[in-house]
Amino acid sequence: MRPSIKxxxxxLPLLLLACGTTSRPDGAAQQSAKPTIFPDYTxxxxxxxxxxxxxxxxxxxxRCYAELKGADLIVEASGKGEIRFxxxxxxxxxxxxxxxxxxxxxxxxxxxxxQQWQPFKIYVSDRSIDSHLVYRLIEPGYEKWHIVGIYxxxxxxxxxxxxxxxxxxGYNCINCHSFAGGDPEQMMFHMRxxxxxxxxxxxxxxxxxxxxxxxxxxxLTYPYWHPSGRYITTSVNTIHQFFHATxxxxxxWDLRSDVVxxxxxxxxxxxxxxIQSEDNFETFPSFSPDGRYLYFxxxxxxxxPENYDKVRYNLCRVEFDPAKGxxxxxxxxxxxxxxxxxxxxxxSPDGRYxxxxxxxxGQFPIWHSDAEIRMIDVESRQSIDMSALNSxxxxxxxxxxxxxxxxxxxxxxxxxxxxxxxxxxxxxxxRPAKPFLLPQEDxxxxxxxxxxxxxxxxxx
Length: 460
Description:
The strands form 8 sheets. Strands 1, 2, 3, 5, 7, 8, 10, 11 and 12 form a 9-stranded mixed sheet that branches. Strands 15-14-13-35 form a 4-stranded antiparallel sheet, with no helix packed on it. Strands 16-17-18-19 form a 4-stranded antiparallel sheet, with no helix packed on it. By secondary structure, the protein is mainly β. The protein starts with a strand and ends with a strand. The chain has helices at residues 87-96, 445-448, and strands spanning 5-9, 15-19, 29-30, 37-38, 44-47, 55-57, 63-69, 73-79, 82-83, 101-110, 113-116, 120-125, 132-138, 149-154, 160-165, 173-180, 183-192, 197-202, 205-209, 220-225, 231-243, 250-263, 268-269, 280-287, 293-300, 314-321, 326-335, 341-347, 353-359, 372-377, 395-400, 406-411, 420-425, 436-437, 452-459. It is built from 2 helices and 35 strands.
């Protein structure tokens, strides 16, 4: 049950907003440490349009009381072991605190006695994040699935709606959703098995494609839109997988792979824009924000699966002429795979930075605990320290917000099994702030939601 709300006007120009019936405890014992909470929202940077950062106390507590102080506003909330803020009051507090900070002080009651924990800051950016996050919810299995769906979550509140669920279409596999520059009106996704094909949504129309052709080794696989909305670059892959008998879980590898470009207007794959070679594996393409470059991963072809742990992918690009639908060689190698492998190249919408994933080998690192996010300045090709974003476990897929100052990253840092979406602020200098887990109305959601958040994509 939600706590009741009371609003108190003070004589000073300070407005106090309270959720719950508990007032600030008197005589609480001062603690020397900050509280341990889940999700960990201590000292994070957040957009001013994010939903409330509800959390639970990770310790023994019969009651909790939280006080959030902004510039001229205080918000209070209380609960039994958890804190849930009023959405209305939270929005007002963040709006008044844009470009500044708020301070959270937590009190907990255990055995009848109150403790006051050290306060922590939450920094409120003046820059907003795109309003919605689209992801696939899928059980973290390997061969079988039951319910799979693509959902959109409003980041400004807790509303989640299905875009498509496979129980509507014969319980098939739905995957690899992609948007043109974060535009929700231009989307594509694949369906496998019954009703199989690639579905393109554009200008209010839905088109179904059979993309297995004599020109390609498979159906279209990993897509990325051209900013014009006319082209979609995608890899075509002969994908296999096997399982480890020890601590590692699964390997996904390609027997063959190429990169092609599909012309949405002419309904054909462009032969002069394809990167196809018997000598190399090419995969995970993307376009630059200005549409003039095609980025992709490339590794020398080798015998597979014998050499699965020796395949290392370079990050490359080639010029693309959107007027002619052609690429122009030579191929430029931006990040060379000397001892590590690189995948998922994604440029910031302003074109300044390229974010990618680093792993020991291969191009599908979502089960690699060593996988980390890396980033370079595209012009200088200098690397940027991303240690604040990474964790000891897997960081893999990532998506930029349209303003180039927020990213969402897939991470297994919480339990090594489920991939969860973390939001991270990227400063003017390219440096990341401490990331924070996507807020949920119920802080226990991630304990009982036994699904991974797959391919989180920010959309406007």
